[in-house]
Amino acid sequence: MSERQRRGNQGDRSGWHAVNSAGELFAGVPIALAAAAAFGASGVLQFRAGRLVPEEQPGRPSLLARLVRIPIWRWSVVLAIAAFALQVAALSLIPLILVQPLLVTGLVWYVLLFAAAEHDRPDRKILLESTLCLFGLAAFLIIAEPGRGQGRGLESFWSALLLGVAVVVSVGLCVLSTVKLDRRWRPMPLAIAAGICYGVTAGLISSLAFHLTESPLEVFLHWQAYAILVLGPFGVLLSQNAYQAGPLGAPALAAITVTDPLVAISVGLVWLDESIRTGPLPVLGQLASLLVVVLAVFLLARRAPHVKGG
């Protein structure tokens, strides 16, 4: 085979990979946005159900035992499972660093759906804040240009141990801090702890996505599958605690929404070998766009219902 033919074949292969990557992108982004919508709808039902049961101490499974008796909470679980399945599908196609920021749009759906449930039309400020959130999100993704890694970082014992210690320590400190905080401030550390659980869970799902091509049942041979079964429900429990803990229900929702993608981005960069653009200007642009997203999320959360007197 001549040199020209070899180069032509290499060019054809690289072109095929580029088309394939673009196809995965166009498929993965709508799936992630659909997951965000399902999470938002689930959050509305969870919030409504949370107001129907007595408040429980943080981390006690008895809260879930009470909630499971309420029909709307059971429907919220169905929506959450559907959202989770869509999230897994998106993570199998596109990078974690791309999927998790897209899930921020779930807050937009949450606010709009709650307004619809209350038969209240969203005002111009909500629409403006939603646009600001989406603008900041789009700017971050365009500037960062997330790239997918090999996802093999968590196969190392020491890397997995480091992530486990980081989760236990950070979540433990958040939960313990609620003991000394005034009641009206307790939702914030609980929400941050829930966001950490969700962000790490997404990272674990992403790391398992590489094994789905082998056999779906093979994922149960990896420790990440069992960690997900613990972290996922515990995150749901902490989020319900955050909604119940005091009058800061709306900022707590914002804290979960912001913490989740930030933690997921960290897991993707440190443990899954994913990449974003580096250099002074790209990093500055990414930070500025993330600040816009955070600001928009907190502005939107002010429109979300409060736990008391909502």
Helix content: over 70%
Class of secondary structure makeup: mainly alpha
What is the tally of helical segments? Answer: 11
- The succession of helices and strands, N to C, reads HHHHHHHHHHH
Strand content: under 5%
Tally of DSSP β-strands: 0
The whole-angstrom Rg is 20 Å
Largest sheet: none
The N- to C-terminal Cα distance equals 73 Å
User: What's the overall average pLDDT, rounded?
Assistant: 79
- The count of domains is 1
Low-pLDDT runs:
1-20, 306-310
Write down the overall geometry: globular
What is the chains' assembly state?
Answer: single chain
Would you kindly provide a written description of the structure presented here, covering whatever features stand out?
- Helix 9 packs antiparallel against helix 10.
- This protein has eleven helices and no strands.
- The protein is globular and about 45 Å long.
- It is mostly helical and 310 residues long.
- It has helices spanning 3-50, 62-67, 71-91, 96-102, 105-117, 124-144, 157-180, 187-209, 223-244, 249-270, 280-301.
Key features?
disordered N terminus, 310 residues
Any chance you could write out the topology, listing elements then pairs?
Layout: H1 3-50, H2 62-67, H3 71-91, H4 96-102, H5 105-117, H6 124-144, H7 157-180, H8 187-209, H9 223-244, H10 249-270, H11 280-301
Helix pairs in contact: 1-3, 1-4, 1-5, 4-10, 5-6, 6-11, 7-8, 8-9, 8-10, 9-10, 10-11
